[in-house]
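Q: I have 706 residues here and want to know how they pack in 3D. Can you give me a structure?
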Amino acid sequence: MEEQILDILKQDNRAFTVYELNDALGLKTVDELKELLKSLNRLEDNLKIYRTKKDSYLLFNNSHLKLGTLLANKKGFGFVDIEGNEDVFIAPTNMNNAIHGDKVVVEITSKKGMDLEGRIVRIVNREIKELVGEYYIKDGIGHIDLDDEKVKLDIEIDKDKSMSAMPGHKVLVKVLGKLKDNHYKGEVIKILGHKNDPGVDILSIVAKLGIHDTFPEEVMEEVDALPDEVKEEELIGRKDLREEIIFTIDGDDTKDIDDAISIKKLENGNYELGVHIADVSYYVKAGTSLDEEAYERGTSVYLADRVIPMLPHKLSNGICSLNPNVDRLSMSCVMEIDDKGKVLDYEIFESVICSKKQMTYKCVNKILEENEVPEGYETFVEKLKLMEELANILRKEKESRGYIDFEIDESKIIVDESGKAIDVVLRNRGVGEKLIEDFMIAANETVATHIYFMELPFLYRIHGEPSEEKITKFLDFIGILGYSIHGKVKDIHPKTMQNILEQLKEKKEFHILSSMLLRSMQKAIYDKNNIGHFGLASKYYTHFTSPIRRYPDTTVHRLLRLYLFQNKMDRDTINYWDNKLTFIGEHTSEAERTAIECEREVDDMKKAEYMMDHLGEQYTGIVSSVMSFGMFIELPNLVEGLVRVDSIKGDHYFFDEATFSIHGEKDKRGYRLGDIVNVTVLAANKEAKTVDFIITEEEDNGKDSI
């Protein structure tokens, strides 16, 4: 009966009463009417249909209701993320006891331009994960002050469920059951340490996001059985490259070295580029506890004072890491590339290498940017300059097809021995960093192209094109700021984005506008269905070059071994991987998002911790965004703080929605995106991860109107 009801509602796009449905179904008896009512209740519970206030029914998708996930803000409001890239603003009074992460039904109440507002009418599903907070006692009963201010829950802990936690302990809590409204019973399942203990601040964020910071015993037992060095019998069938001049280039403190490179100039004038990647899948066998744990983690997480690795250190820093002057098993992609950056020929094979040097970006950049040769690099200068020559060719080729370089700056947190933030600086992205990026992209494209044309199941790194609506919205916004972009945005191509960025490049707030444009684009994900990579302007792309720290790369290596080296391309193998890759793609994409969230939260916390030691100090920054309640100011080291609109002195200031600016009754110019302002640090809160500024009272405040 349920399918019949849905068919009727689909055929006639309107609301039906119970009696109209009864007649349409041709029902004659009271029992049939009762069955109709039960079917309607089930369909309503399953969000297939919607019952109006007048007790009529229509398809849920045709109603003014939407299904989505609530993304709450610690200030009490939130947004419901609806599939299809729509966001619905929810005011604090319309939250209806929903909390961050709830699956909810939202009623659209108004539309202002491109923005939707609504109210939550029903909580469909609440999957409360393990939560982290500070244990305290009130009226003799244990409670948890949750770290995540977006989750508005009161959790009560009975004494026998507290693991003897003491006030001030940061704990991991499992929610046991609901008492009433947002009041729950809970159980402490892990004590992370006292809130003032070194490192507990980061561990709290890690635990809150469900990231494992220790390995299970069964995993470590498997790791203990692995060798510490390459054995002679393991070299059978591998190409021996140990005499080749192969080396690595990484950051100063890198210990998990995935990739090594080599280069030659061929007699025909072409370049032979070798990209040699740690053969992780040789040691991490499918079906083992080690592999299952690596899959669960999905990626290594790089935080201010530590790395939470995907693989235990014996692998990530030991037998898999391409350390210098030791034999290492690898998977090589050797390409012949012409002077236009086109890959003419290539070979993918199992190899053994012996890296001749562990280079650092800092030293390589001294050679290539300053023409200074650090000690120990003398014999490699010619190779490095040849690599720079090829990297320039590859980058020019990528740019000619539409490769988008957003040039987004990143900050680096400097910590002391106790993990406290003592400085925040910009990360350098020099010639060496770009060179490695260019070479890795070339290898990833070559591997993806090879398997794509074999028409075999594979895991691609895909990046869909942005919606015309979102790009138009961005252009409308910068139009309000006084910028006009020449050219059409229909039939969006990477060159369209390239053109927009080029026209904004000379603006002082370019990096802010560039970040905004980047946020208007889709996120790159892992998927077995190849649609290309929009940002790289690449038709075929995968992740092959970092198997120590990314499970998708390990999977790609496993597939290369199956298809190319073991020739396993039978129907059963193809069916197995065609099914399995769906789940690997979804899970590893989600793990990547969680890792990024963790890294951002830790950075924000450490930036606030750093600024706590600089209260009262003055800085010059740029207005990076303007809101109804104030404006955010970004300092040159990317620390961002809020200037509240009611803290600006000398006039009555307010937010002008039409111009996205804050201006006063007398000061008509006010403050806009990109203005340069002088600020004083008013407050910083490590726990809340916030920094507050006030405008420094100086003549003209250093403002620079757009």
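Q: Anything worth noting?
A: The CA atoms of residues 207 and 215 lie 14 Å apart. The longest helix spans residues 571-611.
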